[in-house]
């Protein structure tokens, strides 16, 4: 039997197992169960095609190459925990101003690791980078640091930049932005409830409270109270994190008016998510919005079976994740693409099911006016299929003084796909926010 024939045989066997797992998950779900059966068939076909067309040797070499890629998501800070109103522990990390962990104070040359090969928190240091592109990126990052240092000054109360991540991600999705700002400005990175290192939502475990965007806004307030008890704040939110930032303003407008000096809303939406087509034709879009809530709820009930199905159809899901994460996936570094896949794959299906209904009823357009008085950045990928760029244009209409940036060819995970561009605009926002905060403080003095 040739390698191709052997791969085909293995593909058929794996596809049959995958289809069986997904079908069992939806057996008692009525119409939703029928939809799951369709998904299972499509997943099985995808696995078969992948394994018949890509030999085992090639897949093995690809995995080895990705394993050797950069240490995305390994940056760690000082850990802390905030307690939400229902007792859920919300994990956050703080990067203070000063030398980066693991970087000698007197040797800040890019690519130089600590002598023991590990930083102060015990994770691996980044490998030395090589080549013209790497040197250019390092020089650009150095320029960003100099700009921030000049803008923040030494005597003023510099803002703390707080990052809120999106649905099915974690604080590690801000890897490149965290690296760019690290040591120059105080930053806080937190994991939304049931995501990353935060605890499962207590209200969801015991069934006493459904996930809502308002609940996430109150979670953010708990994190701010714990991690940033005083001083000005710049809020940065991606996707669901941007909605969380809107919910904070909706419920705590006085806090926002007093403490928030800048806001960045990246790849997010203020509402009308039920109208998103996800790149599907009209009939497909209508079917998705009709069936998806029931399908995902059914998957959540059968999470153990579904997780086995996800593992069996990993090749297909990798393709779907790339399509819906990146605008031009063929141009994305494979290591970064794999990093995005790992972030999404780490979210259990029952958590996916708990959060999904909240988006259909999300509407915070009116709450946006709370940020009209501060410098704002609204940024989106023009090829975003999850929160289309038109939703960011709508936000910018409510915030007419905001800087609107729509990135050609970029998708939903624009901060991973175009990190240098996002970093540059974030630094510009912090510069403007710092200047506005100083002006406001002098006016009150």
From TrEMBL:
Pfam families listed in its UniProt record: Abhydrolase_1 (PF00561)
InterPro entries, sorted: AB_hydrolase_1, AB_hydrolase_fold, Carboxylesterase_BioH, Epox_hydrolase-like
Domain of life: Bacteria
Residues in AB hydrolase-1 domain copies: 159-419
Ranges annotated as biased composition (Basic and acidic residues): 102-111, 120-136
One GO molecular-function entry: hydrolase activity
Protein name: Hydrolase
The UniProt record lists the keyword Protease: no
Region (Disordered): 95-143
Keyword Transmembrane helix included in the entry's annotation: yes
Keywords: Hydrolase, Membrane, Transmembrane, Transmembrane helix
Transmembrane segments: 29-49
Gene3D superfamilies registered for this protein in UniProt: alpha/beta hydrolase (3.40.50.1820)
